[in-house]
Amino acid sequence: MNLGIKGKTAVVTGGSRGVGREIALSLAREGTNVVLTYQDNKEKAKKVVERINKIGSRAADLQLDLLDGNAVSKLIGKSSKHFGDIDILINNAAAWPTSYIKDMSLREWKETIQINLDSVFLTCQAFVQHCLSKKKKGKILNITSQAAFYGSTTGHAHYAASKAGMIAFSISLAREHAKDGINVNNLALGIVDTDMMRESLQEKNDYYLNRIPLGRIAKPSEIADIASFLVSEKANYMTGATIDATGGMLMR
């Protein structure tokens, strides 16, 4: 299937590892140029860029601290210096700290919201301004979680709150800019085999598996191909939607 995104340029936050890495590679296989961000591991980011170049697409990496609001707000502008206009924004980067509410510090709460939600507001705002100034259409995909609907029982209330906020924000953004040709959707993930989850999976594998009707953990590459579809020309009639890729954890 031709997704119609060959030659376009995408920004993928947290694109050096896990789901973000696979999304970047999936887009590259469709002929999309990719600007991916990383926090502190330049070598991992470089390896993704090298793989994308071998695929035949173009890529660049940018270091980004999601706690630095000024830097986050400039991401789209910096990215456009590499391959021109930005057509696609995928907000994938996130923090998943562990702390039960009774023990959680206000600082940890605020930092989680800042990384997972404030950064999404800032990148989306900059991307919308970019599209409007160029009088061009665009696609935004925000990666959320089943925890946005179920909450957390394992010490991730701040994460769940940030991901629930992302959904409401995305719907509002989709309503504001549908007539401008800017589509905004969410992809809700369940349990995915990434380094962020690996320690928890090793400690509580049976607990997590028992929550998944399909009975297995998702591979990052499975999620990536769904993401590529959602920012493609095949998804032009979708906006304000949240698509579930949870192995049945969410059934709606």
Q: How are the SSEs placed, and which strands pair?
A:
Elements: E1 9-12, H1 18-29, E2 33-38, H2 42-55, E3 59-63, H3 69-73, H4 75-83, E4 88-91, H5 106-134, E5 138-145, H6 147-150, H7 157-177, E6 182-189, H8 195-203, H9 205-210, H10 220-230, E7 242-245
Helix pairs in contact: 1-2, 1-10, 5-7
Highest CATH level, the class = Alpha Beta
Radius of gyration: 17 Å
Number of strands: 7
Q: Tell me the number of helical segments per DSSP (H or I, 4 or more residues long).
A: 10
β-strand percent reads: 15-25%
The second-level CATH architecture is 3-Layer(aba) Sandwich
Shape: globular
Secondary structural class: alpha/beta
The order of strands across the largest sheet is 3-2-1-4-5-6-7
Helix content: 40-55%
Describe this structure in words.
With about 250 residues, this protein is an alpha/beta fold. It has a single domain (about 10-245), classed as NAD(P)-binding Rossmann-like Domain (Rossmann fold, 3-Layer(aba) Sandwich), CATH 3.40.50. The chain has ten helices and seven strands. The chain has helices spanning about 20-30, 40-55, 70-75, 75-85, 105-135, 145-150, 155-175, 195-205, 205-210, 220-230, and strands at about 10, 35-40, 60-65, 90, 140-145, 180-190, 240-245. Strands 3-2-1-4-5-6-7 form a seven-stranded parallel beta sheet, with helices on both faces. Helix 5 (about 105-135) runs parallel beside helix 7. The longest helix is centred in the middle third of the chain and has 29 residues, at about 105-135. It is globular and about 45 Å long.
Question: What descriptors fit this protein?
Answer:
Rossmann fold; 252 residues; alpha/beta; single chain
